[in-house]
Amino acid sequence: MSLIYNHLLSLSALLLLIDTVLWHLAPFKHRVTRVGVRLVMFVLFNAIGINAGVSPLQAPSFADDRVAQLGATALGILWWLYAARALTEVIGLVLMRRIGHSGRLLQDVIGALVFLAASVAAAGYVLELPVKGLLATSGVVAIVVGLALQSTLSDVFSGIVLNTTKPYQVDDWIVIDGVEGKVVDIDWRATHLLTGAGTTAVVPNSVAAKAKIVNLSRPNNMFGVSISIHVPNNIRPRRVLDALERTLRGSSRLLASPAPKAVLKEAGESMSEYVVSGFIAEQGKKSEVRNQLFDLAHRHLEAAGISRRLDGVIEPASRARTLLDEVKIFRSLSDDERDQLAQSMSAQQYAAGQVVLGLEEVPDSLMVIATGVVSATVPDGAGHTEAGRMGPSEVMGEQSILGDTPSEATFTTLTSCIIYRIDKALVRSYMEQRGEVGRALNKLQAVRTQNSRLALMTKPAPIKKGGFLSWMQKR
């Protein structure tokens, strides 16, 4: 014990070294644990320093031992810096818990002020320097430095304002000054955005504080998507809007609330502009959904007999023949073969909510959707899960054509539909003449089977209630 008491100053220095090693090398997974260890080490450092006769509030008095005097002075200065570091860590822990990652910049600014105050206190108490003169000199220096770093300081304080008001935070998709991207970091000087092109845009905080900011991530998990369609003026708007509403029903990726909508935006001299808009849950799927909406709009407009050319109208008599040109499995047929097939097609109308093809049903024909939207659902044990939605030029009943096997899904109309039927025997005769028809049907069946499996895998598992409340409900 006497040996330890005689080397308290050395033990204090050793404690500082251990703290540094633990902070950088110890595998603490949680920040609370790291900060707790630092506080414990700080308390031990205080206890050892006081027993060694070192006080951070006065200059050390080891006049007869210059080495001890120098060591005690160094430890006194280190005490203030150590205290500033521990206080900064505690403040950072509180800020991270309250305002998350965006509090890092505020933590850095507060930490700088704490260290500045600790440095002045160490100079005044431990070194007994004239603090008033030092502060006056540092004030002049601060003015000179502030003028030289005016732009940088503007970015720093703008960053503090942005972190306090929180118009955006890390991982939000925003638009600042015309630049769109995902916020990946907010530091002292700038906000860093990851753009859709995969590049990094650095926007100074002073610019972001003055610019118009559009936060695409608020409300949460809701991102707007829209497309613009031009149709000749001689087409009645109601016909176009009905076709575009079926377009919206045909996309299962659009959120049901807020409800998607189609509106007539502007009527020009020869063409009218229609806008189709809705919301999706993932920003990264925006381009994919836009492409899907354009394709669905084209198909539903054509199914309604509306052309986007200036003549504006598609003859109804040629609808069956035109439909065959869009059906992928019949692309290998010649024009004459498609003409003959179109003559044998029979149309049938369905109201919304009707079952076109039931589960385990073996149809006697191949069905081609001419207009409307059909939903395909598969059993999941407790009910049914939607595997996909179908629109004009898509077919149903391919399993029956290939091997008289029953349907593995239920096909129900979401809107009023017109569906053409092609006799099973006729389709099989084309399969024998054209091997490409059979290969296309087999590929279609494989794709739909895979889509059904993915739909069942991605369906969230039901949450089973348990515990005391569940026991009470059963009583």
Summarize the structure in short.
The protein is an alpha+beta fold and 475 residues long.
The beta-strand count equals 16
Q: What global shape is seen?
A: elongated
If helices are DSSP runs of H or I spanning 4 or more residues, what is the number of helices?
16
Mean pLDDT: 79
Question: What order do the helices and strands come in, and which of them pair?
Answer:
Layout: H1 2-6, H2 8-25, H3 31-51, H4 66-99, H5 103-125, H6 131-148, H7 150-165, E1 173-176, E2 179-186, E3 190-194, E4 200-204, H8 205-210, E5 213-215, E6 223-232, H9 237-249, E7 261-267, E8 271-280, H10 286-303, H11 319-326, H12 335-343, E9 346-350, E10 355-357, E11 365-371, E12 374-379, E13 384-390, E14 395-396, H13 398-403, E15 410-413, E16 417-423, H14 424-433, H15 435-458, H16 467-473
Antiparallel strand pairs: 1-2, 1-5, 2-3, 3-4, 6-8, 7-8, 9-16, 10-15, 11-14, 11-16, 12-13, 12-15
Helix pairs in contact: 2-3, 2-4, 3-4, 4-5, 5-7, 9-10, 11-12, 14-15
